Amino acid sequence: xxxxxxxxxxxxxxxxxxxxxxxxxxxxxxxxxxxxxxxxxxxxxxxxxxxxxxxxxxxxxxxxxxxxxxxxxxxxxxxxxxxxxxxxxxxxxxxxxxxxxxxxxxxxxxxxxxxxxxxxxxxxxxxxxxxxxxxxxxxxxxxxxxxxxxxxxxxxxxxxxxxxxxxxxxxxxxxxxxxxxxxxxxxxxxxxxxxxxxxxxxxxxxxxxxxxxxxxxxxxxxxxxxxxxxxxxxxxxxxxxxxxxxxxxxxxxxxxxxxxxxxxxxxxxxxxxxxxxxxxxxxxxxxxxxxxxxxxxxxxxxxxxxxx
Length: 308
Hints:
Helices cover about 25% and strands about 15% of the residues. It is an alpha/beta fold. The chain has a domain of about 190 residues: Vaccinia Virus protein VP39 (Rossmann fold). A seven-stranded mixed β-sheet has the order 3-2-1-4-5-7-6, sandwiched between helices. Strand 4, helix 3 and strand 5 form a beta-alpha-beta unit. The longest helix is centred in the first third of the chain and has 11 residues. The model has no long low-confidence stretch (mean pLDDT about 90).
């Protein structure tokens, strides 16, 4: 398929669609470092601009529109979230583009917390908005660990099939199981995922293999909880900004925080995927990304469509 991507960030969702055999023909984001990262790894088809300032006629026709629309306003991790948060309305830009371009399909991704914000009322409005465009809309919360990502990251995946298209989107079956049951391998543990990555203080030629020196202490707060090396890591977050204050998971050893390279591996990015910007910015880009392996799992289902 020819894909248009909104809120593309560092390219995690797009990479998954490319892995499934699709072509991204146009992408967009407002975060300059993320756009630089995207260009370095995926191509020059990304436009650095506020989507609210992009005219629909400047976006090419496509088979599918995808977007992990900004989730900070929705997230249960954001104590200041509110239905009136202007970031919550950015999904309406996704609505605008889908309405005007009328692709065969769309796929939208967001945090699990979106489904229960304001007792589920906000999510009902989001689904109604998508349905009103003339699409058969489905949604499901998927755990990235079920698809080979060494991280228990739960995200809601909303899919839409245009009403005149004879196709039923069926969510992908898990490739991994928490306990290795049902004939599937166990979830990938964080220690297994990181076993071939040397300590950042030792000689290596890995890109982005630098880590935060912020003091490591353990408590019940996010970023300060010990990791069980035999289990997937908890959700990688993007708290903080490119100036600092990011919350970084500790290394399974418990001796330091994960490097940018290690955190990208926990997000299932390829080892040679290079991120641009300072260390805090790179951490933020990784935390905001859709794990490419999860993106691949949801993207490849569209390959079953046999129409024109």
